[in-house]
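Running co-folding for fe (ii) ion.
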Amino acid sequence: MHNAEKIVVIGDLHYTERADSERAALWHPNGIPRLLAAAGRVARDSGATLALQIGDLVGGEESDGVAAHEALIAGAMDRLESALPGVSLAVVPGNHDTRGEGGPEAWAHNVPPANRAIPLGDDALILLDSNTPDETFAALPRLLLETADCRCLFIAVHHPVIPCYYGLSYRSLFLGEPERDAERLEALRLLAERHAIVLCGHVHTNGFIDWHGVGGRIVQVHVSSLWDGLEPALRETISTSDGYGRFYEREGRADAAAFFASFRNGLAAYQHFEGAGFALVKLCPDALSVDFFGGADSSRPLLTLPIDGNEDWRIVD
Ligand SMILES: [Fe+2]
């Protein structure tokens, strides 16, 4: 008998304890702490038993040595655990988590390693380390084999696998460097074959992609929790599939425009919006929905993103 899976997804946090950090203001009492408290209420009210923090837990470049970095990790984990009592916490590493002197050692000593699978009833969640792309790519077939019998496969990875970033580093993806294109396409194929639901961060925006390509389908949800506390989050909005990547055409950046265009025809759904919040991913026996929460005091989703039409599962509101 399948149990409903509910995962609270917390985005990039860049936790800092340095008052002179440019991100220190995000951690004032009405900023990210309020958002985490709201995530805790949503977890409690929905019955979610798992929270996923999607990397860039800490602003590691601001620490100085292993002990300082460990204190930063401990501080961030304490904030999460206090806000989400009774909820299991899974974390994948982001590019800022292991920055700074002693960062890699502090992370390895204090956070369970990624590149492992967590069973979720009939489903499974694979945690990937996108900071070590060669090792992670090598581990992917084993992880997929371990989860071959699951009904629905979630992938947690800091860097997106489908491009969704409008900025300078348009290839800021898992295996995104041009010299890794063969591996990147193979990883896409492996995930699409499993109709994976990718939960990611890194891009400091929120959104949702349903992409059909390389013989399968990938649903990708990207989440940011860098709430600035100045106004209700998840402001501005919303892109359409046809608008996907047009930014680069307008900017006259041919390489980036072509890269995004190569994904555009496969988009069954695409939404991308500014601001910050958290998400509740709900997988029920016959349906999946993703609720985005933005206002830190909100107990109701600001936006629910549905998708239909899949032979294995379908996403509805
Ligand atoms: Fe980040």
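Result summary
Residues 12, 14, 56, 94, 96, 202, 204 surround fe (ii) ion (CB under 6 Å).
Helices lie at 32-46, 66-83, 103-110, 133-146, 181-193, 246-250, 254-264.
Job closed.
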